[in-house]
Specification:
It is a single chain. With 409 residues, the protein is an alpha/beta fold. The chain has two domains: 20-286, Rossmann fold (3-Layer(aba) Sandwich); 307-405, Up-down Bundle (Four Helix Bundle (Hemerythrin (Met), subunit A)), CATH 1.20.120.640. It is 44% helix and 15% strand. It has helices spanning 53-71, 87-96, 100-117, 129-145, 174-183, 224-235, 250-265, 297-302, 307-315, 327-344, 353-364, 369-386, 393-405; strands at 20-23, 28-31, 37-42, 75-82, 125-128, 149-152, 155-158, 200-204, 220-222, 240-246, 271-277, 280-282, 285-286, 323-324. Strand 3, helix 1 and strand 4 (75-82) form a beta-alpha-beta unit. Helix 11 (353-364) packs antiparallel against helix 12 (369-386). It starts with 19 loop residues before the first strand and ends with a helix. The chain binds 5'-O-(N-(L-cysteinyl)-sulfamoyl)adenosine and zinc ion (ZN). 5'-O-(N-(L-cysteinyl)-sulfamoyl)adenosine (5CA) binds at residues 43-46, 54-55, 57-58, 81, 83, 228, 245-246, 248-249, 277, 279-280, 286-288. Residues 43, 81, 228, 253 line the site of zinc ion.
Amino acid sequence: MHAWPASEVPALPGQGRDLRIHDTATGGSITLDPGPVARIYVCGITPYDATHIGHAATYNAFDLVQRVWLDTKRQVHYVQNVTDVDDPLLERAERDGVDWAALAEQETELFREDMTALRMLPPRQYIGAVEAIPGIVPLVERLRDLGAAYELEGDTYFSVEADPHFGQVSHLDAAAMRLLSAERGGDPDRPGKKNPLDPMLWSAAREGEPSWDGGSLGRGRPGWHIECVAIALDHLGMGFDVQGGGSDLVFPHHEMGASHAQVLTGEFPMAKAYVHAGMVALHGEKMSKSKGNLVFVSRLRRDGVDPAAIRLALLAHHYRADWEWTDQVLQDAVTRLGHWRAAVSRPDGPSAEALVDEIREALANDLDAPAALAAVDRWTVTQEQQGGTDAGAPGIVSRAVDALLGVAL
Ligand code: 5CA
Ligand code: ZN
């Protein structure tokens, strides 16, 4: 699949900082030390009801990761998937009486437009589940040959007991895992499974559902976790720097994915850091497709909201926090954007050197975007109240806000 166009990332004077980030698997902060090419996999959308503010907030977090790395003069190898065949997508297409493939195509295109408008850097590879099937089948066959997968009424399941490290992403107990598995696409109550938590790797063809040639697995379609693993291993290999997504992916998705990859390769861990963004709520509940309490980026854009204001609204919240979208959040962002634009259009101001350092330090410290915004606010207030004589400063501020925060002033 094609991704979306990249916006320019201006180079900044001075030195970028290495990223310290919270890792779900170890429960602590780690300083990432990627090679000259940092490797990141971020779980993509299931293409229906896209792009809501919760999606945008999560992709904003991982966009910042890339911007911090780019600022240290590294290249970034970023891979993202599109879950363009899965139960919820098929159910939605069925409910609305539309073709599932057309729905996926149209929603993926809308997502690309929203990502472009929000100045999110595109992945180098943007891969759909359907196009990944030829790579998925041999992995499932290998898991089966290793004794880590088994057949149940034509379906193929992964055996969680095959991975000695299973549980080391989420650290949940069995009861919590079982509950989350039932809520998030698993089938813990299906009779005949070796362990209730075992996830589907390959689902046998069912009447009225799309299916593909699965070699020795028979016709069918891939499970959710193996989709991301196949794409990540194909393009990034094992031991990549960051596996990213929202906190609702910690279990089962990222736990199972890590186990698949670890059994397949015999290496541990799959990723050096598992990074998770908090959940955005609307009217007191997590914004989710199943509840339908959604605010769409495309809708806001159509209503004339500047995408830079949407981005500032996202940046005003720490990525790990759960937070609530309100009209006030957007209004505050619109006001801030107005102040910042006025500030960078003045002919001069106080030196911006310290400010660039502050933004860098804030982001390097577990992506503390709110602290970065506060630093820019302080510079604009000083400029307004005390003026300044540095004619280069407004330009530097504008470039720093663009390069590090993805906001075009
Ligand atoms: N296709 C899978 C990942 S492989 C999937 O979870 N798709 S999704 O469309 O449901 O979500 C896409 C991303 O948005 C995921 O990282 C998910 O964790 C994140 N997300 C979904 N809802 C919210 C929310 N309310 N707040 C923040 N992030 C969210
Ligand atoms: Zn995924």
